[in-house]
Amino acid sequence: MSATSLTLPPLPVDPSIDHEIQAIVSGASTAETCNTDLAAGPWNFDDRPGYGPGSSMGDVIPVGSPRQGELPVEYREASPDELDARVRAAKEKLGGRVMILGHFYQREEVVRHADYVGDSFQLANAAKAHPEAEAIVFCGVHFMAETADLLSTPEQAVILPNLAAGCSMADMADIDQVEECWEQLAEIYGDMDAPDADGLVPVIPVTYMNSSAAIKGFVGRHGGIVCTSSNAQTVLEWAFERGRRVLFFPDQHLGRNTAKAMGVTLEQMPMWNPRKPLGGASAGELENARVILWHGFCSVHRRFTVDQIEKARAEHPGVRVIVHPECPMAVVDAADESGSTDYIRRAIEGAAEPTTFAIGTEVNLVQRLAADNPQHTIFCLDPVVCPCSTMYRIHPGYLAWVLEGLVNGEVLNRITVPQDVADPARLALERMLAAKPPAAPASAWENAS
Ligand code: 13P
Ligand code: SF4
């Protein structure tokens, strides 16, 4: 066959997300999402209206919701020192009226202003635990702000400083695809609500926190539950007490790594690719499945490899390798430990002797841990320093803008989950919060800086 005779049909294009991400999701591109443009101000590449690339593509932007307009020039052109001073001044004026939450992956210039810093489970708890704050400014990504809106009171405004701060993994499962998957599974398993002789329904849907509110709502309506990387095993145990199988989305790696550690074999974990009939699995594979894994992944954690671990061990004998469970299975298997962002923080801070750590997670966190723990040698396994491009969109300029807006009585970039989605989504979250808590302390780390 000549090279020119192969013509691939054009990919269906969803206008709500970046074409590159769609190409990566569909397998048409093996490109990385790491991009040197990230060193620039996000306004240099967030030039389109709407939620922007990397946001939760499964969400149809609700009518009347705010769109990310161009950041006013006074913020774009302000020096880092000026922005820092303006954030501090606005925060001081607002006092207890505002609470700033910062995910561990946020850049240092943002984290220093956060009242609480934590992983996604801890920040969800922090949002729930502070009904006194009129506004919660969430320095993280879209699904985290949605979760804060679900868990906070209706009077509280949850603000995402840059609406284009999404999560490309959350984009990989949209509600239409999940509904379609559920219908196809019902053709194989029959009535999805009917318990068998052991009292187990055919499938319990489990969604990773990194998913849109619409997906959490789906899970809530179908007897399912949310998990985070800090409680995935607890949640799977909860699900197996109620269902014969689990449909786990969107992160195949967290699902596979967690279920494998619980003794589920790889043969019992077929993959569901939403672009293929029956997800690309056979009816027999689905019949024997214990965990059906959605074909999603994190572009940041996918970068880590076994070769990097071997190199770290060769260059640093005795190195302790800890990776996030969003890394591929071979990487988690080759590491010494795996755990959530807070697990990684506690492991480092709890090491009594000076230790060399090689870490497989987002680089902003690794660099901060290295700076905060000079008694240890800490480096990122990935030699290409690449932050999560969507977390990185929370530039201090956006933070200053929304805080000064609050000072002036204006609520900018409010994230509101529509009521019909919010009720079942909250149910799925509450099931998670009521499940046995993770072994680690569940509270976010109160920022002393
Ligand atoms: P944590 O739940 O560990 O904070 O992880 C969130 C995340 O997005 C990791 O990529
Ligand atoms: Fe999403 Fe990955 Fe970024 Fe986490 S690191 S927010 S999973 S894209």
Q: Could you say which overall geometry the principal axes of the C-alpha atoms support?
A: globular
Sheet-strand content, in percent, reads: 5-15%
Counting DSSP E segments of at least 2 residues, the number of strands comes to 14
Q: What is the annotated CATH architecture of the largest domain?
A: 3-Layer(aba) Sandwich
How does the major sheet shape up?
5 strands, mixed
> Low-confidence parts, pLDDT < 50 over ≥5 residues?
1-22, 48-63
**Distance between the amino and carboxyl termini:** 64 Å
Integer count of domains: 3
Can you count the helices?
17
In this entry the ligands are: 1,3-dihydroxyacetonephosphate, iron/sulfur cluster
* Mean pLDDT, all residues: 86
Characterise the protein shown here.
The structure is a single chain. The chain has three domains: 19-168 and 391-417, NadA-like (Rossmann fold, 3-Layer(aba) Sandwich), CATH 3.40.50; 171-294; 301-380, 3-Layer(aba) Sandwich (Rossmann fold). Helix content is 36%, strand content 13%. It is built from 17 helices and 14 strands. The termini are far apart. The structure holds 1,3-dihydroxyacetonephosphate and iron/sulfur cluster. The site of iron/sulfur cluster has 13 residues, from loops. The site of 1,3-dihydroxyacetonephosphate (13P) has 10 residues, from α5.
